[in-house]
Amino acid sequence: MAIDVKNILANALIELCNHTNIETITIKELLKQTGVSRQTFYNHFLDKNDLIQYIYNTKIVPDFHSDNMTIDFYKSLVDTFKNMKKYKNFMKQACKIEGQNCLKDYIFEHCQEFDLKWHQELYGCKPMPEALKFATKYHATASSSMSLSWILSDMPVSCEEMAKMIVDMRGIGMDVLFKDGENKENPYFKN
Length: 191
Fold this sequence. Notes:
single chain, mainly alpha
């Protein structure tokens, strides 16, 4: 059985966040906690921010990746918010980090990239019209911003309520924007 070094490091960083501020956690501290060598760490990750993004992709948003274009958006979003709540200390601390390759910037980029691919997949073979591209980028930015606000304000509403509000807002006008695509139904308000 192969050892999953990435997961060992991810779990150790999450655990350290429960009693240490993520910004002060060093690679050296992480290596001491796990017994992983410096070289092995750098064979898998560029730096701590790369590890943070790995945690986000694998433990927070596992449904939202380019190989999964058949998602139930609402269900996947509820699961994402539940994961954020499960790893609340990690998420809140990681979202406060500023600077190059920070999680906050990554969330915006990841959300927009996924949404553009997902909407194109749903639209069909023809390129999406500019209005749909604009709406997609707009809603990705708004969803990311509201999710960050929810995280940083200690998650004041339920995961289901948060997902419902985002899905309801994203669905407005999508029936018009998807009418000329192969999939003519609104991806957020499926019948």
